[in-house]
Design a protein that fits this description.
Layout: H1 2-7, H2 13-16, E1 21-26, H3 33-40, E2 46-49, H4 53-56, H5 64-70, H6 72-92, E3 99-103, H7 106-119, H8 125-141, E4 148-153, H9 156-166, H10 176-192, E5 202-206, H11 211-220, H12 222-227
Parallel strand pairs: 1-3, 1-4, 2-3, 4-5
Helix pairs in contact: 5-6, 6-7, 6-8, 7-8, 7-10, 9-10
The structure holds thymidine-5'-triphosphate.
Length: 230
């Protein structure tokens, strides 16, 4: 399969490159995923699927992201079911280039965000159960595989600073504790690998540094990221 092929260094790179390869970029809110994706957008063999945040803000005229932050008990199921749909659409979207790079995945939406909402009492148990049933069905029935996860690992404090700087109006009320809780869930999933299945090898990039230093890391690790030689 694609992972084995990309990891098999005995196969020369141009031939390895002909196999399709999917990378999911993960990390807390504000960690720098868009910067990462903008950087790799310049690679000619890579297609980049940015997260459809704008479509979450305008579902037939409804801002589901804003509703979720304003009253999560009432609206988090509405929001997360739409996120799950848009993630699925990106996963199954026909891949034309050798590398498909996705901002997040259906996995972090479920294992980090939905878990966070449920475990902190922001999503009723019945809503969590319905989303979990949908998720389990999609795992069995749809092609949602990824070949590599790039984890941009930043402290909640760094993420908070970056969220403040970008000043997205829906996120004005996000408290540090929310980011701390999401951070723990990303760490449990991708670093300790104790809580949920990890669908692909994980490449960790420390993302607390300034964005220009981070871009140097993108450059140095470029081959690993685009070929999966982790
Ligand atoms: P992120 O997916 O973390 O995207 P980002 O724009 O913060 O990424 P970066 O700064 O690293 O480039 O979150 C976008 C918004 O959507 C954020 O407010 C969190 C929210 N969100 C959820 O609430 N639930 C979800 O399942 C997902 C995927 C995002």
């Amino acid at each position: 399969n694609a992972v084995e092929c990309y990891n098999d260094v005995s196969i020369p790179w141009p031939r390895r490159a002909k196999k399709k390869f999917t990378v999911a970029v993960e990390g807390n809110i504000g960690c720098g995923k868009s910067t990462f994706l903008n950087y790799f957008m310049k690679s000619s063999n890579t297609e980049v699927l940015m997260e459809p945040v704008n479509s979450w803000k305008s579902v037939q005229g409804h801002n589901t992201l804003e509703l979720m932050y304003k009253d999560s008990q009432r609206w988090s199921l509405t929001f997360q079911s739409y996120v799950q749909l848009t993630m699925l659409q990106n996963h199954v979207k026909k891949q034309r280039k050798a590398v498909k790079m996705m901002e997040r995945s259906i996995y972090s939406a479920k294992y980090c965000f939905v878990e966070n909402l449920y475990k902190n009492g922001m999503m009723p148990g019945v809503d969590y159960a319905v989303l979990s049933e949908w998720f389990a069905w999609m795992q069995k029935s749809c092609n949602i595989g990824v070949d590599l996860i790039v984890y941009l690992r930043a402290t909640p404090e760094t993420c908070m600073d970056r969220i403040r700087q970008r000043n997205r109006k829906e996120e004005s009320l996000v408290p540090l504790e929310y980011l701390e809780s999401l951070h723990e869930l990303h760490e449990d999933w991708l670093i300790h690998q104790t809580k949920f299945p990890v669908p692909a090898p994980v490449l960790v990039l420390e993302a607390d540094k300034g964005l220009s230093d981070l871009q140097l890391d993108f450059e140095t690790r470029r081959e690993e990221i685009l070929c999966g030689n982790v």
